[in-house]
Amino acid sequence: MSFQYIRTIPSPDHLKALMPLSSKTEAHRLEKVNELKAIFSGEDSRLLLIIGPCSADNETAVLEYTTRLAKVQEKVKDKLLLVPRIYTNKPRTTGDGYKGMMHQPDPNAKPNAFEGIKAIRRMHIRVLTECGMITADEMLYPTNYAFLDDVLGYVAVGARSSENQEHRLTVSGLDVPAGMKNGTSGDISVMFNAIQAGQHPHDFIYRNWEASTSGNPYTHAILRGGTDPVTGRSIPNYHFEDLEYITSLYESRNFRNPAIIVDANHANSGKRFEQQPRIISEVMHSMRYDSHIAKIVKGFMVESYLVEGSQKISADQVYGKSITDPCLGWDATEAMLYDIAEKV
């Protein structure tokens, strides 16, 4: 037997009954989700920043980060909408390594998905209730969205997942904006096909049900750069010529709410986290130069945490420092956000 079945995972309904939202929190979330949708529809001219650690590995550190972020949000609320990046599932290129809080609520302990699912719901709820901010998470496992569908404000589909049919069809049933990344090779046709699938209605099998969806009109593009298959070098796609070309392709298609989010890290920065403010500044310059780019680029993704850089998992980890990809530190993050707000 290849599989060892360790424990039964609670149903989404059971988990929500154990960890419910108040009617006040539900109403606040809906209000913030509508603000986010207004940015993608063009009714709200503010820039969106989906920002936070590469992996949300520690609830206390994440809450400290989002508490600081909420204070900045209040100061820049007329220019920017900040959505904390609370990524609780981590795709691994080879399958090895830390797979996120959902698998391993304590990075130094054994995996425990039962406790992990409870831990990630609690963390998302705390950010929503204590900081007043809707959160973003990556959809690594489509069926797990049901555990968080009443708390999330934004969903990202990663470069390795955007070509997957189950991810695409699940996005078509979401009631929140969902971003589809271009493939790891940099192929943007994968991204455009994913957007088309996400915006259309479908009938498919989801969580042991035959389900039908009406399509998600807020499915959009995330540009994250790519990798040269011969040299292995990163190929960015945030430069003016890239944005001009991708915008022209986007405008030639019949998509609802055309929108681009530029991921300032990953292959766009060559994983040089400190380059993220410069990359955003360059994109904003392109937006000022070309009205078509300005209209379609709605914001940015940034990897940022309390302490810059990254570290290996250990018993004496630095509090608030990434255990996956390196991140921008808080001081540089705060300065960057105020700088962006001034330039809007």
Order of helices and strands: HHEHEHEEHEHEEEEEHEHHEEEH
Largest sheet: 8 strands, parallel
Separate helix tally = 10
Backbone shape: globular
Strand order of the largest sheet: 2-1-12-11-8-5-4-3
Radius of gyration: 19 Å
Supply the number of structural domains.
Answer: 1
- Class in CATH? Alpha Beta
CATH architecture heading? Alpha-Beta Barrel
- Please report the total strand number as a whole number: 14
CATH level-3 fold name: TIM Barrel
Strand content: 15-25%
In which range does the helix fraction lie?
A: 25-40%
Q: Structural class of the helix and strand makeup?
A: alpha/beta
Average pLDDT rating: 95
Short description:
The protein is α/β, with parallel strands linked by helices. The chain has one domain (about 25-344): Aldolase class I (TIM Barrel, Alpha-Beta Barrel), CATH 3.20.20.70. It has helices at about 10-20, 25-40, 60-75, 115-130, 165-170, 190-200, 240-250, 275-290, 290-295, 330-344; strands spanning about 45-50, 80-85, 135-140, 150-155, 180, 205, 210, 220-225, 225, 235, 260-265, 295-305, 305-310, 320.
